[in-house]
Amino acid sequence: MRKLVEFNVLSGEFQENPYPTYAKLHQEKEILIDRRLNAYFVGHYDGVKQVLNSSEFTTAPLSKRAEPVMGDRVLAQMHGEEHRIKRRAVLSRLTGQLFQERYAPLITQTTECLLEKYISSGKIDLIKNFGKDYSVLVTLQVLGLPTDRYREIAVWHNGITQFITSLSMSEEQIDFSLDCSRRLIEYLTPIVDKCRNNPDDGFISSLCSISPGEQQMTTPEVVALVLNVLLAATEPADKTLAYLFMHLLQNPDQFQLVMQDRSLLSSAIDESLRITSPVQLIPRQALNDSNVSGVDIPGGAMVFCMIGAANRDPSVFDRPGDFLIRRRNYPGQPPLGRKAHHMAFGVGMHVCVGAAFSMRQIELTANIILERLSNLKLAPNQKLQEEGIYTRGLSSLCLEFDPIDYDFMSFSNSVN
Ligand code: 2IO
Asked: pTM (2 decimals)?
């Protein structure tokens, strides 16, 4: 049995640091309600799992949160045959084989190219100097889109994401987001048309070729699907990467484990996703009057699944605030907690379609960073700040490492 407790999701205190609120809701067995928004906030693992696995809680909020800026419905709004076919079409472009053959070289090249400028300085801000460009550039290349206008696209992406993830917006902000959406849709539309009329072997052409209904999708439908992938792949990527390095560098013993056995890197990414989930909230709407862990929820109410809280539920994960990459597998020791996976990618029928792909992407990039930047450390005296309550990430992460002198390298190469 849980009790319902008043909550202000927009309070500065919560925005600054949501983790004490999460700890309290676990300890006191609470479900939160923000009456200003008529929204319930469920943060315990079993409650979130129940909501996301139940057809009693729909993705209807996305028709207001996402559709106005996406131009049409996203995958999470679909069900049945249409959902199955479109989801499969996206998934078929994100396979391990395509990753190895096509995307890995692009990701490697992008990562190395972005690092290059900083190699000789011994310093890099993993968000501001690297992650922001990295996340957009990789996504554009995976989608087979040109990269020449990536800076504008990054701005449009931000405007659109603001709309989807804000819990309160001014008129000006709304106008800005809608403007970003118009521009990005205008940019993508002729590209989608071209892929339909002159198909190549890329992502967009393959989306154009499927027939989820009787016939192929309309251009706005494809554009919305492309936007869906563009946003979902870009927004969490730099956040995930920076959090991973933050945790590794703050926990030298765990860092050492990874350096000794690189196959542990994917467990480190999972642990980082658990402890600092880049998507902290998933919105749903109660279809009928229902009940979650003893709390009545009226039909029509908004229900936010607090992913970031559920992933720190002490009834599932022992020592939930500790970054322990072998928590489910310490040789000779019982696992730390129930045999349960984190829910950073969601669960249920709308579980992230890019989960496996993004794990590979982050693993590849993190491996290159670990190879290229030796003696990696957090820059001293930086106050680590996080922003966002829907998607959340570090505003900056300054790293230091041993600089490499390029003149010396080219000299030694020319001698050989
Ligand atoms: C794009 C918050 C970027 C998704 C969204 C309208 C649908 C869906 C998510 C994640 C991350 C985004 N929702 N991915 O929470 O595709």
From this structure: 0.96
